[in-house]
Amino acid sequence: MTVAIAPGKIILLGEHGVVYGKPALSIAISLKASVSIEKSDQFLVNAHLINERRDTYIKKAIDMFWDGEPLSVTTFSHIPSASGLGSSAAITTATIAALLALKGIRSREEIAKKAFEVEYAVQGMASPNDTSTCTNGKGIIVWSEKKDGYIWKITKNNNTWFIYPFDVPDIKIIVGFTGIKSKTGMMVKKVKKFVEHSSFARELLDEMASLVMQGLDAIKKNDMVELGRIMNSDHKILRTLGASSEKIEKMIGEALKNGAYGAKLTGAGGGGSVIAIGDDESEERIYRAMKKVGKDAYIVTPDIEGVKVWD
Ligand code: PMV
User: How many whole angstroms from 15 Cα to the centroid of ligand 1?
Assistant: First the structure.
């Protein structure tokens, strides 16, 4: 049996900007998903015949990257689905890692590239942000600008993204799930309309890019108060671009009222999740407030390992 475990992710700064080649900063988190694969006499997922609607990402991964004998796949996940926390990316990345391990391939670059191909084939529109973060763990900057220190680059339809890793201090991030399915494609389209027709929106994206770089600096200095301020500014831009919602605003309001240094939506917005950072004393309060207003809440820490495979 081959087992692969991959972390979920949060986008700390820069979502939506990354669609236009700006940098986004993500962190792999301690909520994880696992995939176990063994040989079988038919293709099964969680003891049922594989089903395109229910097992979309696993089926696509097998169709695209497996031509061997039938497999039985078992999944387990602590990441709520459609929450903007990378549940599909983690399952896809773990599936690809296990399939490649069965072929004797263990290259992370190969895993990240193939997992992105699967996400792209399913979603029609995606940046390699989620799959690269789930593969590598730690912090990841995805950016279309080429600088020193990238670990791999991914090209699709004339877009090239360079993937830069960075170390994250042992911070706690409070995640609140709104309970409303995140609608990545729809939100990307909504923001795109604004960006295409308004120079003001494009200026906001430049401002967002500069916040991402300031945020990276604050992380390197372990300055959480400054990082919180930057998260608040980033959220203000995301709200102006139309990515927020009443529920998101309510949860952010609760987090700030309970002492968060900063709080913002994470991922595409509309629904999905919000994130907040605070000090040791306020974390529990923020967590409880978010849990009360939203569907669920989690206190997560950065994952430093990325995808891992055992066979
Ligand atoms: O909703 P998520 O977690 O898949 O994040 C979407 C982030 C966007 O920047 C809005 C789109 C993308 O593909 O990067």
Answer: 6
